[in-house]
Amino acid sequence: MRDRQFNNRIPYFTFYIGYSTFYIPLSFSKKFAEEIYSLKFTKIFSNLNRIHMELEQFFSAGYRGSKAFKQLDVPNADATGFGSPTDDYMDRGIDLNEQLIRNKPATFFMKVQGSSMINACIHHGDIVIVDRSIKPESGKIIIAVIDGEMLIRRFEKTMNRIRLIPETPKLSPMEINHESDFSIWGVVTYVIKSLTV
Amino acid sequence: MKAIVDCNSFYASCERLFKPSLRNKPVVVLSNNDGCIVSRTDEAKALGIRMAGPYYQNKEEILKNNVAVFSSNYHLYGDLSKRVMDTLRLLAPVVEVYSVDESFLDLTGIDEEKLYDYSLFVKQTTELWTGIPVSVGVAPTKVLSKVANRLAKKDKIGTKGVMVLQTPEQQMEALERTAVEDIWGVGGANSKKLRMFNINTAWDLRNMSEEWVRKNLGGIVGVRLVKELNGMPCIEMKDPLTTKKMIATTRMFGKPVYELNELKEAVATYIARAAEKLRRQNSAAGSVSVFVVNSDNRNYGHYEPSYRSTYILLSAATSLTNVLTAQVMPLVDALYNKGSKYIKAGIVLGNIVPSDMIQFSLFEPPENVNAKKLMSVIDNINFSMCNDILKFASSGTKRNWKMRQEMRSQRFTTKWDELCLVK
Prior knowledge:
The complex is a heterodimer of chains A (197) and B (423). A 7-stranded antiparallel sheet of chain A has the order 5-6-11-7-8-9-10, with no helix packed on it. Chain A has a two-stranded antiparallel sheet with strand order 1-2. Chain A has helices at 2-7, 30-38, 55-58, 96-100, and strands at residues 12-17, 20-25, 42-45, 48-51, 107-112, 127-131, 141-146, 149-157, 162-165, 174-176, 182-192. Chain A is 12% helix and 32% strand. Chain A is built from 4 helices and 11 strands; from the N terminus they run αββαββααβββββββ. In chain A, strand 7 (141-146) and strand 8 form a beta hairpin. Chain A is mostly beta strands. The longest helix of chain A is centred in the N-terminal third of the chain and has 9 residues, at 30-38. In chain B, the strands form 3 sheets. Chain B has a 5-stranded mixed sheet. In chain B, strands 9, 10, 11, 12 and 13 form a 5-stranded antiparallel sheet that branches. Chain B has helices at residues 10-17, 42-46, 55-64, 74-91, 115-130, 142-154, 156-159, 168-176, 188-196, 202-206, 210-216, 220-229, 260-280, 321-335, 369-384; strands spanning 2-7, 27-30, 37-40, 68-70, 94-99, 102-106, 134-139, 162-164, 247-257, 283-298, 302-318, 342-350, 353-354, 420-422. Chain B is an alpha+beta fold and 423 residues long. The longest helix of chain B is centred in the middle third of the chain and has 21 residues, at 260-280. In chain B, strand 5 (94-99) and strand 6 form a beta hairpin. At the A-B interface, helix 1, strand 2, strand 4, strand 5 and strand 8 of A face helix 4, helix 5 and strand 14 of B.
């Protein structure tokens, strides 16, 4: 019964440190598994207790988009004469989910309104892909929540201050201090933009 | 050890995720047809708004305190629920999804000393990834883990939303703080009975003898419950349900229906919805039952709902919307009574079998392939475009009877044209 349950899931390996045993999905790298054990990943950032996952560590063979497909989904030529010589080499085709979504349960799509990021080539009406599991580092474009409003801005963090920088001369950068009602919703990973409309 | 991960006021938390201005503000979510309150945040609870209370009774309180009210948006809740469960499946070896907002995890094999840290890690990762706050209760049995979860939820700041009941002392302290009616599986009637025997807390119940429980608390079910309270696991992890044995679709009408045509339209739509579910799990139904509820003015102004139902056994199991609709429409004719005021209708598909195992009768031609192709085209278009862009004419074009959802938020995660806007 237990075996059947495991079949539907991602493969696991058992991980020992000292007397402790952990079950870790194979998609986690060993280094990350070590971090689970030592709980080094918990960092305190602006009154939020967030865990930050590093892409490179976490998604070496990670959970990307939809992997659920059948052999039937691979096309073949259905040639009636001689069989097509390419049939043995057919692929499933390119799946955008695999490329654009690194962590499916943490990825959300949003639509940009206005021109606050115009110099970063993010225009009104573009769709941005937001990953909540990525660590917001200085220089990344993030979705910030300020006073209950969701804003897309470039995140700048230096030794002693945090700023949200719009990519347009019309708006001025926003300084974040201890009194600000500020949190980070997620990090923007891709922009989808239509060039024909 | 087993853990239960339970989302904190799940529906209201889903609404908050895309409206951060509602953080720390009271939020309530209403049931279908905006009838009752089905989810409320701690802030709304503090205002005295009752769970499952009718909306109109609480309306004054809600308006006065500026509580945010939402109609239920099951598209959003379903998607976020799947995200929470997917995250848990990545983090834990065995996951049993128990309901839309709670899952049991089997933590066998995780070092006893690290249980708290591990649970905190599960909680924080789920919250970070999906944005839905959760509480975790960990204990040797399912019933005890529910007890732990409830206490973790009550004191979110002190426990950080995680409670582990490992030692007998911890279990005793937790059980003493839990009233009998708050134990998982003890209903209202049973708890009244227990109170009569002066059993007030879970700890009191735990100390009762097996014979007493067998006699007074529903036989073997009660014995199992008390064993679980004692830390002896009796309720094991279940395999996921892959196919449903019965599919029901039923709704209250947005406003009462008098005409036969409108009633038929409603039933046809419910059949289409249920048949879609049936095809999604690759099954076929062998029987359909229909029911209608009318509320007629009898006894001089005294309204009394009355319920009529009938069913039909199909000669061959099917999942085709048009076949099911054609079979059911005469039943609606038979149930309909001119002049009655209908407030609700529903259908139940039964005798469900996998569609590759359908037994054909001698006199029935096998379903032809074209009809199946048609269904899959309709399903694909409806899934990818928007709800019900293609439908059978029998389900009507106007839909006066459709349910009220006046305050529904956008379907942020499932529809391209309803995405969340960022400035």
